[in-house]
Amino acid sequence: MLSAALLFTMLNVIIKLMDPAYSVWHIGFIRFFGGVILLLAVFWRNRNPYRGNNVRLLILRGVTGSITFVLAITAIRLLPISTAMVIFYSYPAFTAIFSFLIYGEKIGLLEITSIAAIMIGVAILFDFSFSGRILGQVIALAGGVSAGLTVTLIQTLRKQNGPVIIYLYLCTMGALVTLPKFVMHPIMPATIREWAMILGIVFSSFTAQLLMTQGFFYCKGWEGGVFMSSEVIFTAIVGIVFMGDPATWRFWTGGLLVLSSVIALNRLKAGVRKTRQPKAETGLNIEK
């Protein structure tokens, strides 16, 4: 989980440093199409690589995951990277809400308190002013909503599908979603630096996604949430120390409130997830 968080931090930084000529659609297509190529190259064994259980839900999860990534990239481009990630990591609140709406999971008083604290933290980050950054803040929050739905759908898919097939559908649907915008304004890397950054996007996202998905089979739910929340800390440190992001009282107050509430919510939900989670798988077999 910590390795995945570090790799996602690397991905965030690379995206932030990419030449502005690369739009969110270019970056999305690079990540998703590159992921499809890597997955098929590593795991395809002369059989239908898309053979999975509940294909419709795999496709739906792929679409919502693609939208989440595009929204997250847009937010990173419009906001300081630390602020964008802290707002985006409000998604556990929306995961709890979607779990109630879709699966009927009851939300207790302590969970409602955690959700309310997360939203208060996000409100503090919004600073209540409709400045030029409000669009980026809204997009980051929309990404959190989309991520909450995506994570909720995974609860069903993980029972009969391994991490590779889930990620393959995400990359395939993401490539299809971003392809039209990409072909309208195609762009090719012109320097060694650009090639290095493109390869960094593909390999960091590929490895981080598989590590994260597989990691949930080996650690408790609240532990996984704590570990993945460290992405916000890693990203904030990089943004503030190396990229000159502002570290105002609103960032620290809202950020700490969001992070502490996310950790509390993950721990509260751990008991429910433990009773419903299938037996841990030990491999990454694409046949699953």
Overview of the structural elements:
The chain is an all-alpha fold and 288 residues long. Helices cover 76% and strands 0% of the residues. It has one domain. The protein contains 11 helices and no strands. The chain is globular, with a radius of gyration of 18 Å. It starts with a helix and ends in a 12-residue tail after the last helix.
What attributes does this structure have?
288 residues, mainly alpha, 11 helices, disordered C terminus
Oligomer: single chain
Query: How many domain units?
Result: 1
Strand content bin: under 5%
Shape, principal axes of CA atoms: globular
Helix content: over 70%
Number of strands: 0
Unreliable spans are 279-288
The average pLDDT value, as a whole number, equals 80
Q: Element order, helices and strands?
A: HHHHHHHHHHH
Radius of gyration: 18 Å
Instruction: Give the helix tally.
Output: 11
Main pleated-sheet profile: none
Q: What separation lies between the terminal Cα atoms?
A: 22 Å
Structural class category = mainly alpha
